[in-house]
Amino acid sequence: MFKLHKHLFIVSLTLLSGACAMAQSNLTSYKCDDLAEISVQWQDDKALLQVGKTQKISLVHVRAASGARYANNQHEIWEHHGELRWTDKNGTVHLCKPTLP
Hints:
- This protein has one helix spanning about 1-25; strands at about 25-30, 35-40, 45-50, 55-60, 70, 75-80, 85, 95-100.
- It starts with a helix and ends with a strand.
- The chain has about 100 residues and is of the alpha+beta class.
- The chain has an eight-stranded antiparallel β-barrel.
C-alpha cells in the first residue's frame, strides 16, 4: 500500500510541475533596440506588459491584419513573426526581440 501512495504522489508532482510549466510558457521576455528589457504575459484576449521590475501594464487584444496586437490608451504592442513592436505612452517605438530563457 505504501508503494502505491508513493507512486501516486510522484505522478501528482509530475503533473503539477507540468501544469506550472505550461502556465509560465505564455511569458515571453524581450530585449529592445534601445536595450530596454520588457516581458509580456500572453493571455486569451489580454496581455500584461511588464516594463522594468515594477511597471505592469494591462492591454487588450485589438484587431490586426497580421500578427497579434494589444493596446490600451497609452501603450501598444504588436507581435509579428516572433518580433515585437512596442509603442510606449510617449509615442516612442521600440523594436524588440525575444531573449533566450
